[in-house]
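Late entry, written up from scratch paper. The run itself happened at the end of the previous shift, but nothing got recorded in the book at the time, so transcribing now.
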Amino acid sequence: MEHPARQNLGVSAYARLKRDIIRGVYPAGEKLLMSHLKERYDLGTGPLREALSQLVAEHLVVAISQRGYRVAAMSVGELEDIYDARANLEGLIVELAIARGDDGWEAEILAKAHTLAKVMDLSGPEEMLDVWDRRHQVFHSAIAAGCGSRHLLQARESLLDQVERYRHLWLCETVFSSEALEQKRQEHAALVEVLLARDSSRASRMIREHLMSPVPIIRDVMKRRGLE
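Output as recorded:
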């Protein structure tokens, strides 16, 4: 059985390295040198290898035979494929959630929507990005939870892991724009209204459109940064 302290080091390395990859500290295609990682995170080879293996499984890192690890490439083709898969899966999950969700499910959605709409007056842009994104994901997870399917929710989490680097590009364009945030607030309010009305077909269509809306924005950012 793995020692708890060692296990905690692996979890810490994974969380910190994943965050840095998502935020572009290590750009797409960059080689991840173990010597640099050990110095940056003040961790040994073991925990870092565990973290890298997990990130390989999430398609954020690529293992190079006998030559270490590299940050996975990014492309418009992958962007569009992941978002399309995610939007269609989420559409199915929403249909099931409406069919299966109870009063508690409705109450949870209302609570999370209210909390998300209240993000304001934070100390700085980084805090704004972190808090809004966390509350945004919690809101959508509350909707999805009503489907009651562990396997569908696991598939959803897997796609979320793969889309994170692309989502971060969109977040940086959205969270710091009051106009874009207000548009999202209106989309969320309209979505909640349709969910509570139990209009399955309309809610499924709306969630797909909502989740696909970042794609053109991300595509433009990638073009500017030469990530096509």
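The radius of gyration is 19 Å.
(Scratch paper discarded after transcription.)
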